[in-house]
């Protein structure tokens, strides 16, 4: 079998086949992720539109940003989103994980049930909550029954943003709960037992044993959820409408990107500048979380 | 390793387990009845909060046109359950065509992601060649790019290729996810080298080693990639919203958004639409929970 021709063939195959294996992945990644990334950076310095090629305009787009009220509204809402959603998503799933950690009868059912919102599309989730929080929806019907009266969750600017945040937290709970469950399973049981012998109650043990053990997981959850929260789009789009409320006061940064850059009259250049802000803040958030982690450790 | 495998470290002996099950936790320690009670109360409360909204949506979709859906106090169960709203939603928007479009997109996404990421992952994990480090770096960088920041450029790229407003255009950007490639790479790297070495000595070529030996050993990770590719494509909203403009090409999520925007007052109709969109995924999740949870663990560590 080992004729010279076969040997050459194998050698040639060794040289080319790795690239053949990697080619489809490299092609898709290059054409639809890396090229768009670079072209976003390039376009942010042009006045390109959907149907017009565009010219180099230097920093004009970024200068326009500074005077664009809608940009500041979007940045404010996306930042508020991070500030409110992240603490909730770091703490609540941990408590939930503690609740479902013990293997009591039926617990696998509860774990799976709590995960259901993660599986559903954000569009389904958004529309379910639009109906629940409707002026005449279930939540208001219940509030009226207990005598509180109806609340305009979806008509007030701030209540709407808060409701959207609640929906984000509701949908994310199960996901981060599973991450925490894995971390909790690695907490040595001896630590708990030793603390219990020393007379530490459940609350004390939570703060002195559990919390230090899952600290790195909390940082991970903070990093993941803050990046996701800053890029929020669907929840607010569905609950406030495509324009982010009557005067656009609930617009988020990514909603602004979508609204500015798409359609036949889309301002690709300006939307790209907005996208660059999304990149920069996303990276900054990651670094911030990781740095806060290191400082705490020191 | 699966997250739940770690969580469920129960006593090994099944007889032991059956006897002690009711009174002990996973470490074999006793659980007091009082504690058990408040745990179940809390569990049921969270259950009502997480699953309740889905059931309310289902209930709304089954209520007939004469039934008051706005009553206060609310009536949780439909008085006369009817499937009328499901036929109505199909008369209003081509919901089954949209479901078929979603299914096509999701199925294509599963195939391309499984094939593409297995091939590339194998090259990164097992094949030695110049440029391997650079290839790995390309996928790591691609994983870090936030999709929301490049959708506009992806849209112009699709226009340049003449693929905007097509289902192929919906599939392409996520066809081979960088994270899936890296997941497959790690799965292949964790296989013992010896088996493949033996095949190599026996004269098996790269393709045979990949297809017959390596691939069957990473079925678990492949299943995770498949499930998340399906769920990602079925649930996606922002990208199809941008790339599709022709209502006949809509996927379910975009169709639902359209339904909600146009017939917002008809809550029964929207409810029926959302039930159609979510039911397949809940069924999938019920059957394959293990892989869903495993994916969270692997994805979080890498992401």
Main features:
heterodimer, A: 298 residues, mainly alpha, MetI-like fold, 75% helix, globular, B: 303 residues, 2 domains, 72% helix, disordered N terminus
Quick overview:
The complex is a heterodimer of chains A (298) and B (303). By secondary structure, chain A is an all-alpha fold.
Sequence-ordered SSE layout with sheet pairings:
The complex is a heterodimer of chains A (298) and B (303).
Chain A: H1 4-43, H2 60-66, H3 69-101, H4 107-119, H5 122-132, H6 138-145, H7 157-185, H8 189-197, H9 202-213, H10 215-230, H11 234-240, H12 253-261, H13 268-297
Helix pairs in contact in A: 1-13, 3-7, 3-10, 3-12, 4-7, 5-11, 7-10, 7-11, 8-9, 10-13, 12-13
Chain B: H1 3-7, H2 14-20, H3 33-61, H4 84-92, H5 95-126, H6 132-144, H7 147-160, H8 167-171, H9 178-189, H10 193-201, H11 206-217, H12 219-235, H13 238-243, H14 252-262, H15 267-302
Helix pairs in contact in B: 3-15, 4-15, 5-9, 5-12, 6-9, 10-11, 12-15, 14-15
Description:
By secondary structure, chain A is mainly α. Chain A has a single domain, classed as MetI-like (MetI-like fold, Orthogonal Bundle). The radius of gyration of chain A is 25 Å and the shape is globular. The model of chain A has no long low-confidence stretch (mean pLDDT 89). Chain B has 303 residues and is mainly α. Chain B folds into two domains: 81 residues, no CATH class; 213 residues, MetI-like (MetI-like fold, Orthogonal Bundle). Chain B has 15 helices and no strands. The N terminus of chain B is likely disordered.
User: Main beta sheet of chain B, described?
Assistant: none
CATH topology of the largest domain in chain B: MetI-like fold
Helical coverage of chain A, percent range? over 70%
Strand pairing plus helix content of chain B: what structural class? mainly alpha
Structural class determined from secondary elements of chain A = mainly alpha
Based on the structure given, which CATH architecture of the largest domain in chain B is correct? Orthogonal Bundle
Proportion of strand residues of chain B: under 5%
Which stretches of chain B are poorly predicted, pLDDT < 50 over at least 5 residues?
A: 1-22
Computed over alpha carbons, the radius of gyration of chain A is 25 Å
> What would CATH call the class of chain A?
Mainly Alpha
Query: Number of domains in the coordinates of chain A?
Result: 1
Q: CATH first level of the largest domain in chain B: which class?
A: Mainly Alpha
Ranges of chain A with pLDDT <50 over ≥5 residues?
none
Question: In CATH terms, what is the architecture of chain A?
Answer: Orthogonal Bundle
Strand content of chain A: under 5%
Shape call of chain A: globular
